[in-house]
Request: fold
Amino acid sequence: MLAEFRTFIARGNVLDLAVAVIIGAAFATITKSLTDDIIMPVVGAIFGGFDFSNYFIILGDIPPDFKGSTASYADLKAAGVALFGWGQFLTVLINFLILAFIIFLIVRQAGKIIHEPEQAPAAESEDVVLLREIRDLLKK
Reply:
């Protein structure tokens, strides 16, 4: 059973998948930072606030023993209040679109590199053509 497991793990596809998952997770943190720390503050400033994820609608009752801020999405969510967190959803959606666009660019570039058209052979000089004709005549 151990030998079968080693054979399974040694397959190229499994190793490629493992590497892709690890690199994808690391890349996702970079994209999340790009969205949260650079793009969303600008979008939030345009729409009148700096923390775009704090745009929400309270759907349920706030518990009487609630100690946090009623303007904080994280505090209300931690207290179990039903919320319509459209700002948080928008942040995640923009994060996804950025990640998808960057992956599209990477795949497009990789496709160009892998499928580069082969260059046509350079035109042969007259000397080479003449030498080939002489060779062919000598063979006959």
Summary: The chain has one domain: 2-139. Residues 2-139 form a domain with the Non-ribosomal Peptide Synthetase Peptidyl Carrier Protein; Chain A fold (CATH 1.10.1200.120).
